[in-house]
Amino acid sequence: MQPLRIGIAGLGTVAQGVLDLLKDNGELIAQRAGRPIQVAAVASRTAKDVDLLGGAFSNDVLGLVSRNDVDVVLELIGGEGIALELVEASLAAGRPVVTANKAILAGYGQRLFAAAHANNTALGIEASVAGGIPIIGSLSSGLAANEIESIAGIINGTCNYILTAMASEGAAFDDALANAQALGYAEADPTFDVGGIDAAHKLTILSALAFGTPLDKEAVHIEGIEDITLQDIKDAEALGYTIKHLGIARRTDKGIEARVHPTLVPQDVLIANVNGVMNAVAVWGNATGNTLYYGPGAGGAATASAVLADVVAIARGQSHLEFDGVVREDRWVPIQDVVSAAYLRIPVVDEPGVFARIATILGDHGISIEGAIQRERAIQNRQVPISVVTQPVLEADMLDAVRALGELPVVVGPVRRLRVDHLDG
Ligand code: HSE
Fold it and tell me: Which residue minimizes the CA distance to atom 4 of ligand 1?
């Protein structure tokens, strides 16, 4: 059989993972693909002392497209700029592309898939979401017979690594982030991770696959984990919750809501126990009910597994991989119209009647209290935090209530609000 000849763009964590995996599992991969996978060329701005498995090295990334010994381009550079240029040039030339680049897919995916279809070639994106978890294939193939109701999951390994380190070791945020970077989990610009942008890119892709929404990253409401404190984590624990950074996309009568934010989840749901770099994505299908996909969400080997899965599919002759790019639902629900339960921490003066005043404000806004505690004794100046978990409430009403609470004379500092989700569909 003719080998499938790949050209690899980039020589970072993922590209090195691909080279290592081809070296270790090359024979098995060739059997499954029906033909050997051969590294014809590797292009990167800077050379590195790694085994290129016989691939010719060059600094000319775009040059991969014009080489006649490259059958498939693997775009493993990341970011926009030259990575986007390479993918567009390759698709325009009718050459299949495999990419791990969620940023270009979430930003320009609509036109990239259109180009792939117009040029009758493949665009493989399994590696773009949740690292080693085959979530793209699961949504596009395994669950193809389902109407998808909702998706909720941990889709940024760096955030989960940091939150886990804070919760289990009391680690400082910056130290945990530095470790995640050293382990090769974080983006080149780690604010994409901790600011929720990477998760939003991934949710954009999942939503397109699940609901047929356009690949429009602007539609996702984004909150990161930069403001999460050890105090938040301890308070959540005391109430029976764990704080996770979640991506949630849900079908409603008014369209699709899509948001990424720190979320209190009950300690006894599976996702609450997904730790470190591991990701987990729950998908509710109308035939399957709840399904859950768990695995490493970042790192060279795990992501390389997903990249090479697409290479194998192309070697087997699949011309259009996961996604047809057709928009079937373009109504997005603005965040003000999203309904979600909330956790509130309200610093108050410790005196009779305070709790009643808080309950009145919440009641006036139609907000039901699910649970409330005043855990600590007054620490100084007779001040104490009251923690409340509410029933699901409209975002706009919750913001009004938080504003009104802040105006109460007995409330002596900013009201902390985090969302709560019981992950029940
Ligand atoms: N920086 C990403 C993460 C890598 O931490 O999940 C995988 O996309």
Answer: 298
* Residue carrying the six token digits 């006894």: 268
Give me 134's structure tokens. 């085959």
8 A C-beta contact, residue 117 and residue 325: yes
Minimum-distance ligand 1 atom for the alpha carbon of 192: 1
What single DSSP character describes residue 332?
B
Which DSSP letter does residue 139 get? I
Whose C-alpha lies nearest to ligand 1, atom 8? 298
Q: And the tokens for 416?
A: 């902390």
Q: Alpha-carbon torsion 89, 41, 190, 336, what sign?
A: positive
Ligand 1 centroid – CA 72 distance (Å): 24
Name the active-site residue from 23, 48, 102, 202.
202
pLDDT in tens, 324-356: 888 999 999 999 999 999 999 999 998 889 999
What global pTM score does this model have? 0.96
Question: Position of tokens 């892709």?
Answer: 205
The closest alpha carbon to 391, from 318, 337, 340, belongs to 340
Tell me the best of 102, 104, 187, 303 to mutate to test the pocket of ligand 1, counting ligand atoms within 8 Å of each CB and taking the most. 187
191-209 pLDDT tens trace: 999 999 999 999 999 999 9
User: Helices (DSSP H) in 219-299: which residue ranges?
Assistant: 230-238
Task: Please state, in angstroms and as integers, the Cα–Cα distance from residue 408 to each residue in 146, 166, 359, 387, 401, following that order.
Answer: 49, 33, 12, 16, 11
Question: Is 202 among the residues known to form the active site?
Answer: yes
The pair of structure tokens assigned to 148 is 């998808």
Q: Judge contact between 38 and 6, C-beta under 8 A.
A: yes
Ligand 1 pocket, Cβ-based, cut-off 6 angstroms: 131, 156-158, 185-187, 193, 198, 297-298
pLDDT band at 378 (very low <50, low <70, confident <90, very high): low
Taking the C-alpha atoms of residue 92 and residue 7, their distance in angstroms, rounded to an integer, is: 16
Q: Are the C-beta atoms of 283 and 291 separated by less than 8 Å?
A: yes
**Residue 373 neighbours by CB distance under 10 Å:** 13
Amino acid at 354: V
H or E element in which residue 372 lies: strand 369-373
Residue-wise burial string across 289-328, b where 16 or more C-beta atoms lie within 10 A, e elsewhere? eeeebbbbbbbbbbbbbbbbbbbbbbbeeeebbbbebeee
